[in-house]
Amino acid sequence: MATKAYYPISEIGAGKVGFSKTRSIIETAFYGNNVIKINTLKEAYELAKDSPGTVITDMPVYRGEEFGLDRDAKVLLFNDGAITGRYATARRIAGEPGVDCAELDKVAMDAIYRSRWKTLYHAQVYVGLDPEFMVKAHLLIPEGEENILYNWMLNFQYMSDFYVKMYNNSKPVGDGKEPDIYIFSDPQWCGSDSPTVSMDCLSDPEKKTLCYFNTDENCACILGMKYFGEHKKGTLTMAWAIADRNGYASCHGGQKRYNLKGGKTYVASAFGLSGSGKSTITHAKHGGKYDITVLHDDAFIINTDTCASIAMEPSYFDKTNDYPTGCPDNTYLLTVQNVAATMDEDGKVQIVTEDIRNGNGRAIKSKLWSPNRVDRLEEPVNAIFWIMKDPTIPPVVKLKGSALASVMGATLATKRSTAERLAPGADPDALVVVPYANPFRTYPLANDYEKFKKLVEVKHVDCFIINTGDFMDKKVKPSDTLGIIEQIIEGSAEFKPWASFSDIDILDWEGFVPDMKDETYLKQLRARMKDRVEFIKKLETVKGGYDKLPKEALEAIEKVFNECR
């Protein structure tokens, strides 16, 4: 099997694979006499439907029987309260400088002890949907949090007969040295010091929440976090770490294949934060001009040797603000979170989207939303698109040289999305750098740098930056972005050297041609490139140099800054 769940007596003990302090603390909780195992989606649905506060809408789950549900299953709505986004500030990652695992282990032990008075539910799913890469994940969560449990099983792959057989015949990840993922979660937890447990090891300024990841041991402890997205991304965090250790590039983005005339294909990968346009790009049908196959719009991995790609999840965790009540796309909803509800003229309960109640309304959509959806693309990836919201970058540029291509991904500049809950005092409108659009990394940044560099240098993958925000106060519309991509995949895009840059080409796009004689523009462009230089330099000292990049990365971005004139 892909990850290891059962051990011969001879393989159990100190210093052996799957046996370490943090993992032992977390896994042991799964065997308590207060634990109920949830084996099917039907069980999870019934628990969520009956959970206090759940809104049972009159919207049917489309073809629900294909997902392990009864034919009459309804879309369930659950709202989390005032918190409707992820809280990165609470993340503590074992191995990073300043992270006190000994103290965090005590917090986990105490939280699990307190949970003994509660009924706990144990669910299992698969992450990764191809025999080449499948890992098993376990979640333990208290009674009262049935909607998180149900959403988790919907978001990842529940154990259907088809996938159980696939998993049993799948390749052992890491030559059998990767144990199953175990996650203990108590959203009802609230931190408080005790004689033997201090909250000083938490990074949350209020000491009330914690996401503790020990990805080397494939385990995590999520405390005080009610938002489902914490559990989704927390699970992906560990699966991506496993992928990284085993030769894959871990990707927070979307990928699709254009099936062109003459049997040709073009595989495009777009990397961006939530709200950047990666889902729009991934699912765009281009007015029916192309036959399109979708891998996924949020989470996948690329084999850096074969360049084949594998989806990590079957469904889509998507924003609802662009899908008004009655929108045809809502046919494919499975559950909804943090949106309003009302009654229509027929007395039926309907959801109210468009972020009227709060920002970052969310839904899980079935894979049926995207026709021609697959779990694996065998064809090698042709292009990487770094999606940025940097007002000094034209709608598209092409990067030459593997070091520049990779370091531009490492300095991906964008704006925060409503999917994130920011720490007190943080500016939600500030331009920030999120390397490779993946804020969920738990391993050194250099690992990603080397993998994406290999894809460009060794596998000859093209690399572009596309700006989906504003370019010098003029909005780049989705029609601009999609039009640019169409020219690239058709081979008609005429890129030419951009100004004095030796390693950046530009495609002139009507209405967005940069005026390199405009000193105001040049000043801003230099400033943004200087920001990137300073970011790479800071990596040498921040967190004790944990995320330091090779010297060539700094040299590549400094070259761009020096040529910016």
UniProtKB/TrEMBL annotation:
One of its GO terms (molecular function) is ATP binding. Keywords: ATP-binding, Lyase, Nucleotide-binding. It catalyses: oxaloacetate + ATP = phosphoenolpyruvate + ADP + CO2. Pfam families: PEPCK_ATP (PF01293). Pathway: Carbohydrate biosynthesis; gluconeogenesis. Its EC number is 4.1.1.49. The keyword Nucleotide-binding applies. InterPro entries: PEP_carboxykinase_ATP, PEP_carboxykinase_C, PEP_carboxykinase_N. It comes from the Bacteria. One of its GO terms (biological process) is gluconeogenesis. Belongs to the phosphoenolpyruvate carboxykinase (ATP) family. This is phosphoenolpyruvate carboxykinase (ATP). It comes from Johnsonella ignava ATCC 51276.
